[in-house]
Every structure is written in C-alpha cells, then in structure tokens.
Amino acid sequence: DQQVKQNSPSLSVQEGRISILNCDYTNSMFDYFLWYKKYPAEGPTFLISISSIKDKNEDGRFTVFLNKSAKHLSLHIVPSQPGDSAVYFCAVLSGTYKYIFGTGTRLKVLA
Amino acid sequence: EPEVTQTPSHQVTQMGQEVILRCVPISNHLYFYWYRQILGQKVEFLVSFYNNEISEKSEIFDDQFSVERPDGSNFTLKIRSTKLEDSAMYFCASSGRGQGSYGYTFGSGTRLTVV
Which residues 33-92 of chain A have a CB within 8 Å of chain B? Predict the structure, then answer.
C-alpha cells in the first residue's frame, strides 16, 4: 500500500533555517491532508491540515502547501528550532474516519 | 491540556494469549480510534468507533480483534489470541468531531511484545 509516500527518511537543518518536508500521494480523490509530529515514546500530535480546495494553509511557523496536479504536499517550518526535531508524518483522510499515513521523515534541527 | 491516556505503556504476552489494551479518551470526545505501528513501518488504521459501534475497520482488524466501551470513560482493544506479528505500538485516539480533517488526539501508545 504505497498511497502516501515520504521519500526522505531523514532531514537535517540548521537552527533558524527553513525545513521542507515532502509527501506524495496517488489518489486524486483525497480531500484532506494533514501533518502530524511524533516524538519518541509519544503518540502523533496533530500539526496542521489542508483541504483539497486550498493550496496553502499557514499556522505560525508552519505552512502546508498542496499541489493537486502533482499530487504533492509539503510542510515548511520557518524558522526551524531544535524543539522541532521529531518524526513528521503526512496523512491523508480516506473516507470519513481513516487516515493513511506516510512512512515519516525524521527531522533533526541542529543548534 | 486534555490527554488521551493509555495503559499499560508496555505489555509482554505469550503467543496465543489474550491481551486487552486500555485507553481513556478525552472526556467530551465521542469518536474513538485504534491505530498501530509495527517497528519501522507506517502508522496503520485499525478501527473507528462511534455511538457504541464500529463505524469503520481495516483489513487488519479481523475476528481476533474487538473493541469495547465498557463504561463511560474506557475504550479497550482486545486481541483474542495474539500472534508474533501483532507486536507493535498501539495508539488510541479520540476526537470531538467525526471528520478527520480536524485532527485527532493520540495517546502515547502501548508497546505490545508477543513472545
């Protein structure tokens, strides 16, 4: 099941710079796209979402971009902080309740 | 901030034994979910639950799995006869609204190890 792919398993960024995390999906019928952050020994934490009728949604340092024609989703974090170091999962809403998660990208923000 | 609480944090069980994973969702939430993550793999949907019945389940959620809301606060996942491949982190989640577009609140997970 490769409906949602995060091709970069890890990413390192200097503190204060921009982090860009990418996600690709296969089904053009998906309506909602979300990003979750996960620290070790904790559950995923909801960060930000975007519906298919938008191409950008911003919340503080976090911005999600949606390119429907390319079936591509990205999360921008600027400026990046050491506390942002975590695994980031993109997820698509399949139906009413079910998420399909990507495999995650481990972000390390270097002080 | 309200939390979803899961117990135990780690459970070791013999293959073939029954195990019950427990969750206390956020008190005013009405929608409940179980997800799991096998080590090194994706977080996968198992089941959603609303109004005392399953609203959606995945192909993973076979007859060995069941969910229950035995009282007003707990939400449990039972695996009847555990297999080695059931070893995973199991995450409970809840939401106040049925639409997943608003995001769920996940618990910290129970690590299940089947030996």
Answer: 34, 36, 41-46, 49, 51, 89
On chain B, the residues whose CB falls within 8 A of the CB of A96 are: 55-56, 98-100
- CB B67, CB B75: distance < 8 Å: yes
pLDDT tens digits, B76-101: 999 999 999 999 999 999 998 766 66
- What distance in Å separates the CA atoms of residue A49 and residue B61, rounded to the nearest whole number? 27
pLDDT tens-digit readout, A36-62: 999 988 899 999 999 999 999 999 999
- What average pLDDT does chain B have? 93
Which of A53, A98, A103, A106 would best serve as a mutation to test chain B binding (most B beta carbons within 10 A)? Answer: A98
* CB contact B91 to A (< 8 Å): yes
Of A41, A42, A99, which is closest to B100 when you measure between CB atoms? A99
Cis ω for the linkage preceding B2 (within 30 of 0): no
CA atoms within 13 A on the CB side of A65: 11
Looking at this protein, which amino acid is placed at residue B77?
L
Burial class (CB in 10 A: 0-12, 13-18, 19+), B56: middle
Which residue, among A105, A84, A82, A77, has the nearest Cα to A19 in the 3D structure? A77
What digits encode the pLDDT tens for the residues A80-103?
999 999 999 999 988 778 899 999
Q: Do the chains contact at A98 and B103, CB–CB below 8 Å?
A: no
Residue B2 has a CB neighbour count (10 Å cut-off) of 12
